[in-house]
TrEMBL record:
This is Amine oxidase domain-containing protein. It holds the Pfam family Amino_oxidase. It comes from the Archaea. It comes from Haloarchaeobius iranensis. InterPro entries: Amino_oxidase, FAD/NAD-bd_sf.
Length: 345
């Protein structure tokens, strides 16, 4: 019998669930509030540039399986960012990073290609621009979803929630199911902390030549938490131009989250110019931004709590379940959940 599976969130964890079910007797439907898929691994295009304004790349670390998956998805457009990531401290002192930090995989067409290729090979159906507002469990055990327009979907045999923990907690709070497992799961999810990051893009009509791809402030005590050169990625920035991706530290991001882009970008450009000791950088010729209210997990959910409602067909998945904000870990966590649903684990 074919099982029906609803997945709220079409980021990398959501497509990971679908990927694990692709050869099984399962019909997967993805729901996402955005216009496209891939979640926080997001790519945007503007003025001839292409830029990743959430997750910057896929870094396997010691997980050898990642490169096998990337090869399966197709190597066309796949590229390793060869220049290293260096560090900077609270005083803006820049230092070389660790040698041999391993590959940093991206795509010429942007990091969204990963989720798009995974979904394509799995064939899951997707409802975009669909914000799920409430959930109900029927007397027959099926799960029904209702969106903000009042449209209902289901019932489904299984339900997987993959948004960041605070948004998943909101969905659980809006779930009609009289069961102690719901209260336990909601409390555990609600306790997971996320940090806020505002990304500001700074474009310049000249190239920026540096010996590094990016700078990171590991101690989180500089207003600029991350600064990268998008021109280091193939086909992202035209020759003769420069585009910096500044991901601001959580404290700065919270304080300036709702500040108009023009004034926020002026402040960021001044900070970046001081960090790189280059006054030209105070005057970008165009800017863009993205606020990530729930950018990265600062904690994770207890594994037993995360699985406490699975025997009723309710699952959670994502980087906050895996325990670290990494693209490949979120994907693998989604695949693991999909394998449990279909009895592969």
């Amino acid at each position: 019998m074919t099982r029906t599976i609803a997945v709220v969130g079409a980021g990398v964890a959501g497509v990971g669930v679908a990927d694990a079910c692709r050869d099984e007797a399962a019909e997967v439907t993805l729901f996402d509030k955005a216009r496209g898929i891939s979640g926080r691994a997001a790519t945007r295009r503007r003025n001839g540039c292409r830029y990743d304004h959430g997750a910057n790349y896929i870094k396997p670390g010691g997980d050898d399986w990642v490169e096998g998956v990337l090869a399966e998805l197709g190597s066309d457009g796949l590229a390793d960012i060869e220049l290293p990531v260096w560090t900077h401290d609270a005083d803006g002192v820049i230092a070389e990073g660790r040698a041999g930090d391993g590959p940093k995989w991206t795509y010429a067409r942007g990091i969204t290609q990963f989720a798009k290729r995974v979904r394509k090979r799995g064939g899951a159906s997707v409802h975009t621009e669909t914000r799920i507002e409430s959930i109900a469990r029927g007397s027959d055990g099926g799960w029904t979803l209702t969106d903000t327009d009042g449209e209902t979907y289901g019932p489904f045999d299984e339900l997987v929630l993959t948004p960041p923990a605070p948004q998943t907690a909101d969905l659980l709070a809006a779930t009609d199911w009289d069961d102690d497992r719901l209260a336990r799961l909601h409390a555990a999810v609600d306790a997971v902390e996320f940090r806020t990051i505002r990304t500001v893009l700074l474009h310049y009509p000249f190239e920026l030549d540096r010996p590094w791809y990016a700078l990171v402030n590991p101690d989180r005590d500089h207003p600029v938490g991350w600064l990268s050169r998008e021109a280091c990625k193939p086909d992202h920035v035209p020759d003769g131009e420069g585009l910096l991706v500044a991901q601001m530290a959580p404290d700065w991001s919270v304080e300036h989250y709702d500040e108009p882009l023009d004034s926020a970008a002026d402040a960021v450009a001044s900070l970046v110019a001081a960090l790189l000791d280059d006054d030209r950088l105070t005057e970008p010729d165009w800017v863009d931004d993205q606020g990530w209210r729930y950018a990265l997990p600062d904690s994770s959910i207890d594994a037993d709590d995360a699985r406490c409602a699975e025997d009723a067909g309710l699952y959670v998945a994502g980087d906050w379940v895996a325990g670290e904000g990494r693209v490949h870990l979120a994907f693998e966590n989604g695949r693991t959940v999909g394998q449990r649903i279909t009895g592969q684990e």
